[in-house]
UniProtKB/TrEMBL annotation:
Domain (Glycosyl transferase family): residue spans on this chain: 191-340
Domain Glycosyltransferase subfamily 4-like N-terminal intervals: 13-172
InterPro entries per UniProt: Glyco_trans_1, Glyco_trans_4-like_N
Protein's UniProt name: Glycosyltransferase
Classification via Pfam families: Glyco_transf_4, Glycos_transf_1
CDD domains according to UniProt: GT4_GT28_WabH-like (cd03811)
Matches recorded under PANTHER family: GLYCOSYLTRANSFERASE (PTHR12526)
Length: 364
């Protein structure tokens, strides 16, 4: 098959990281794979290079991402290349592709992945008719969790073209990198208990304050590391200063080596208000170290049991669970064993095969 994926950019989000993993697999399986990017200026170099090295062709559209003239570029591209499948991700790329499809003739089938349980457009009911038109242009909408499907069906008043395919991670590569990092990574002070949270600094969806508050209840040999970027990082830093915790909390910025960090840390935590399907959770479960996540949509359905969860916003429970893991080697070991067994179902090869099977079904 000749396949085009279309996304805003190859930035630091979960959808972008996912494409850097699945597109090379599709290419390796003998398909002709292209990637169209709406704004190359935000690309992560490592993601871009991984895709290029696999032989996938990257097409950088010339108009700016929010410029409707990108639609014209898409029309010419699709008519020229005659793709069998075009798979869109994120807003506004999904809009431009849907509108471009009105200017046929071409026989290409369209697919979109819905990556989040919520988006800002759903705050405005006046947008619902437009959204329904846009989504109807796609043969299938892949929802990354059942809750994503439920929420989208409620918004669109239909679930006729919706299905669920869970995201995955490259377990083989992750496990190899993680194993190699355990004894070589020297970022963390091994005399301390090092807690790592990997998340975008966005107060709408992420909850850095809860883990900061939890740290106040932990002994001074517990240190906290934040990996990630985002618009609200200064708000978090200001809050940390007010709590007099500057000396115990470290900001690592964007990191392309998250698998190393997660495996070198003592405990991985994700404090969040909601997720689509949390790639951070899956990676933490594969890291060989204990994980604790907020008991919220997008996290609670992808952990082995309740031992891996704490009540959303409950920093006392989080602190107590961190203490229990650090003080009880048997609990620590059992959580790691449970995580390793559970995460096998999220292997990225299984996910990619489900995508390709769907492509073949709607192409026929």
């Amino acid at each position: 098959m000749k396949i085009l994926h279309y996304i805003n950019n190859l930035g630091s989000g979960g959808a972008e990281k996912l494409l850097s993993s699945i597109l090379p697999i599709m290419q390796e399986k003998g398909h002709i794979v292209h990637l169209a990017i709406g704004n190359k200026n935000k690309n992560i170099r490592e993601y871009e290079q991984a895709i290029i090295d696999s032989g996938v062709k990257i097409i950088n559209l010339e108009q700016s991402l929010y410029n409707p003239f990108q639609i014209i570029q898409l029309i010419f591209l699709i008519r020229k290349e005659k793709f069998d499948i075009i798979h869109a991700h994120l807003f506004p790329s999904q809009y431009w592709l849907a509108i471009a499809s009105l200017f046929k003739p071409f026989k290409t089938k369209l697919i979109k992945t819905e990556h989040s349980v919520f988006n800002e457009r759903r705050k405005y009911r006046l947008l619902r008719p437009l959204e329904k038109i846009i989504y109807q242009r796609y043969s299938k909408i892949i929802c990354i969790t059942e809750q994503v499907k439920i929420n989208l069906a409620k918004w669109l008043h239909t679930e006729s073209n919706l299905l669920v395919i869970h995201n995955g991670i490259d377990l083989k590569q992750f496990n190899a990198d993680a194993k190699n990092s355990i004894n070589t990574y020297d970022l963390f002070d091994k005399s301390n208990i090092n807690i790592l949270m990997t998340a975008r600094f966005d107060t709408i969806s992420k909850d850095h304050k809860t883990i900061v508050n939890a740290l106040k209840l932990l002994p001074t040999n517990f240190s906290l590391f934040f990996a990630g970027e985002g618009p609200d990082i200064d708000k978090v830093k200001e809050y940390i200063s007010l709590q007099n915790l500057d000396s115990r909390i470290y900001f690592l910025g964007y990191r392309p080596d998250i698998q190393y960090l997660m495996s070198a840390a003592d405990i991985n935590v994700l404090s969040t208000h909601f997720e689509g399907l949390s790639g951070v959770t899956l990676e933490a479960l594969a890291s060989g170290k204990p994980f604790l996540g907020s008991n919220v949509t997008g996290v609670n359905s992808i952990v082995p049991n309740e031992h891996f969860l704490f009540e959303n916003g409950n920093y006392i429970e989080l602190a107590n669970k961190i203490k229990a893991i650090s003080n009880n080697s048997l609990l620590n070991e059992q959580m790691t064993i449970d995580a390793k067994a559970f995460i096998e179902q999220f292997d990225i090869n299984k996910m990619t095969n489900q995508y390709l099977k769907l492509y073949q079904e709607i192409k026929c």
